[in-house]
Amino acid sequence: MDTELLTRLQFAVTTLYHYLFVPLSISLSLFAALLQTASAVLARRGDPRSGTFARLALLTGKLLMVTFAVGVVTGLVQEFQFGLSWSEFARFYGDVFGPTLAVEGMLAFFLEATFLGLWWFGRDRLPGAVHLATIWVVAVGTTISAFVILAANSFMQNPVAYTVDETTGRARLGSFRELLLNEVNLAAFPHTLAGAVMAGGALVMAVGVWHLLRGGHEAGSESAAAFRTLSRFGAWATLAGGALTAITGDLLGKVITTVQPMKMAAAEALYETTTAAPFSIFAYAPPGSDRPTFSVEVPGLLSFLAKGSFTAEVSGLADLQEAYVAQFGPGDYTPWIPVAFWSFRLMIGVGVLAAAVALVHLWVTRSGRPIAVDTRLASTVLWSVPVLPLLPLAANSFGWIFTETGRQPWLVFGLYSTADGVSPGLTATEVAVSLAAFTAVYGALAWAWTVLVVRLVRGGLPAEPAPRERAADDADDADVALTY
């Protein structure tokens, strides 16, 4: 492998690993806020289920804290890599990319982390409304953080709001507002949020199902009712997220066809410009060939996905390659077709499978029915539970693989090539060593996250925080004041 390919591999490994925690952080913060809000509403009505929802919110929040911590650590590597392996790209793009990283960093390290700490340590000290507000600040801050950082990636897909300084050769940001309102970002943001809801929903659904199937909960007990509620809450979130992912993905696909037609052509391995272009459910290409020799197709579906009409014309790879050579100069502008082709289908297929599992769970537990299965089936389902959260996470990862590899050979589409962005003087050995180091650290983080999450899940419902005596609180506050 040459230096450029190793550098791309390093960035792919670290980015995909980091993105395992991003959708979970986004969705778990929202779920904790929703569950705590439900608890507050039920408490005002005098409903005894308020305590159950409060305990579920606390469990979800604990999962969020572990995930958020690992996500922050892995996210730091992304910024570190721009200086380590992509310094030329950072020099060119830094004035555009810098403000988004600064805003995202302030949100993550100051707003989200601070209010997450207030939520955790203030649960038995802050007034109820204030305590509820802290977790909503975390949820909203996480969402805004995702929107801002997606704007940076959207610039790489569709560069806007910039000028190139002829003296320095650097891109200059023209309008931060226009950068945020990039049409790709406006389409990618809801698609990303929907995928995050799927991922978090599958995780909490798996937690609920695992507790119900492992036994130890008497029928009608608070614990059994709570985990049944959690499993159905997660299933509804997964199903709703799946539906929204399909809708927003359709909109995103049409935007991508406009700004990066080569990517959509690569998704189907469509070499010739075609009217009523089909979409292949399955295809086979001989080893060493990018052109399928056998495929199972749905007529006109690619045209609909690309342009909203089953009879629309979709540009082919050969014609686009010829047009790009005329526009950008000699070179191969075709991405790696097998990766684009299969990552696009795996993204859709795995996502549909996750939604189908959620739908089955909702059907099985409808009308208050408990999960009643024989021992063998229960054992089989129980062993499959850890796989449930991996389905939407895999779908998210395949989506990012398609998004990023389908843009190649560009770092910033039509503006800056990947080969030009690698740090000068960087050797393949240096990249290989750093890649091995990152992999080892990430492996340790994955082990730590897994151990902590398993312990939290096995611990069951957390106990409700015992209310403190106001006099004791006042005495503590007085002691602190006197100390300072």
Describe the structure.
By secondary structure, this protein is mainly alpha-helical. It has one domain (3-262, 316-483). 71% of the residues lie in helices and 5% in strands. It is built from 17 helices and 8 strands. The strands form 4 sheets. The chain has a two-stranded antiparallel sheet. The protein has a two-stranded antiparallel ribbon with strand order 3-6. A two-stranded antiparallel sheet has the order 4-5. Strand 1 and strand 2 (171-173) form a beta hairpin. Helix 4 (87-121) packs antiparallel against helix 5 (128-157), helix 7 (183-214) runs antiparallel to helix 14 and helix 8 (222-259) packs across helix 9. The radius of gyration is 25 Å and the shape is globular. The protein starts with a helix and ends with a helix. Mean pLDDT is 85; it is low at 468-484.
